[in-house]
Specification:
The structure is a homodimer.
Chain A (H helix, E strand, L loop, with lengths): L3 E2 L2 H23 L4 E7 L3 H16 L3 E7 L5 H13 L5 E4 L9 H7 L11 H9 L16 H12 L8 E5 L6 H10 L3 E5 L6 H5 L4 E4 L17 E4 L3 E3 L2 E3 L4 H4 L5 E2 L7 H20 L1
Parallel strand pairs in A: 1-11, 2-3, 2-4, 5-6, 5-7, 7-8, 8-11
Antiparallel strand pairs in A: 9-10
Chain lengths: ~290, ~290
């Protein structure tokens, strides 16, 4: 049996339509363009290329994009001062500070400096904390509004749009980064999955993965998860973005996994195309909250 | 085989000695008494009795205790104003707002009103967020200072003081409250356990529990976890506080579990005696940070 492909590109097309409608309606009503400000210190090539991708998405969607660059030599105070200025700037609805920051900069201080209301990347502790504290679906949230990092938000959107049953299922998340693994685990828990978080220190990782009804990979190691780590029929969400001999591949050995899984995201074309759209949706939502 | 009893009472005696030394040294150095302010609106009997226990602990340890009560009819603005006053009061180092709050009060608004620096109960989103974001042990934390809720902090202290190996082990947490289950899961993850969170919607709960090297129960259902849910030799941490025919008991069926587990906390006398001490340690730590 070959798995159903969870087609992130097709889904992104659908979401683009929904986003465009939302942006158009917002602009009509308020005469304001939902706008992101990207902050970068230095010229890390991956950050430069990511910012260009964001700009392309925002340009095409009729949304505002600002790039604020500081030199690699920027001090912490300069970065914090820029963030504070953008916090106070009413024409900016969302702020993303790109990582890595230059050596010697305390990332915690920079994140804390963000206004949680403009932290569309979901990295401020208040946003992480509200995600950690939010009640399960179907109950009052019991926390204020928050933003979820775009990558795991995109993974959840794929599960939902493909009507994957989450409640009561065993979800295993491999990787515990603050921008993918941990928020993904908390999002799955909110949807009433039984959630296991694995990482580099996990004993018998293959065995734990084999117990997953929903297996999420976010480790950053090319094709680490093999076909025989997957329970037959499981749903596999691959957040990995790795390059092997110039070819992009995920954390899951796709060729093996596709023969075992019930559903699987390909890389490229799975979770990737969703990420920028989720970020853009967060910026639209931030703009709505700020005018509301 | 009968399990080793994880003796919370004996451990609390040790910790009391360490706390007393810390408090005495702090008072000597600064001439300041580390002080908690407990806020209560209404007279919920469990809250009244809990506040009395806290007062007793703080009195005995030579620490300051203030009780600020408002009537059941207090408005949200009144509660928030009281919290704001205590935030600004230099003689108060820690604040705990007791739950439940009166009907119609938005708990999220009251929690958000707390200064994270005085939130010794670890309920403010910033504290929950930093716990969610903190790096695993042995790496730079990458977040600012934070407070952990006292109950799970006490459970972790028991594991550490009894030299339970956590790294790489499979820890299963049954229950996902914001004051016990979820923070306990994040604390175990920080110590490099592979962590599974279970709850009322978990399928085959008994089977999942049986995979645990460390099983933590925080559901609030008397003796729900049976002996045959426990892997032989597992370490069992029971956070349950239930009453059956006037007798206090945990979430674990102790008489059955003690024959299977390798180590187990009794109820009473396990995690319970640790809780107030951990709260007091948080208040001492808050006072240290505030003078520092």
């Amino acid at each position: 049996m070959t798995a159903t492909i969870l087609d992130g590109r097709a889904l992104a097309t659908t979401l683009r339509g929904e986003l465009d409608e939302g942006v158009a309606a917002f602009k009509d009503k308020y005469g304001i363009t939902p706008t992101i400000a990207v902050v970068r210190a230095g010229e890390d090539p991956a950050s430069v290329s990511y910012a260009k991708m964001i700009q392309k998405t925002f340009d095409k969607r009729g949304m505002g994009f600002q790039l604020h660059t500081l030199p690699e030599t920027a001090s912490q105070d300069e970065i914090v001062a820029l963030v504070a200025r953008l916090n106070a700037d009413e024409s900016v609805h969302g702020i993303m500070v790109q990582e890595p920051l230059p050596k010697g900069i305390d990332e915690a201080v920079v994140k804390d400096a963000l206004s949680p209301d403009k932290d569309v990347d979901g990295v401020h502790p208040v946003n992480a904390g509200r995600l950690a504290q939010v009640s399960p679906v179907g109950r009052p949230p019991m926390v204020g509004p928050f933003f979820v990092p775009a990558t795991p938000a995109g993974g959840m959107e794929i599960l939902k749009r493909y009507n994957v049953e989450i409640q009561g299922k065993h979800a295993v998340v491999v990787g515990r980064s603050n921008i993918v693994g941990k928020p993904m685990a908390l999002l799955l828990l909110r949807e009433n999955a039984t959630v296991t978080v694995c990482h580099s220190r996990t004993e018998d990782l293959a065995g734990v993965c084999r117990t997953a009804d929903i297996l999420c990979a976010a480790v950053g190691r090319a094709k680490m998860i093999k076909g025989d780590w997957i329970k037959p029929g499981a749903v596999v969400i691959d957040f990995g973005v790795n390059f092997v001999e110039g070819q992009m591949c995920g954390d899951v050995d796709f060729d093996e996994a596709v023969e075992v899984a019930g559903m699987i995201t390909p890389v490229p074309g799975g979770t990737g195309p969703m990420t920028n759209l989720m970020l853009a949706l967060n910026v639209l939502e931030a703009a709505r909250r700020q005018v509301g």
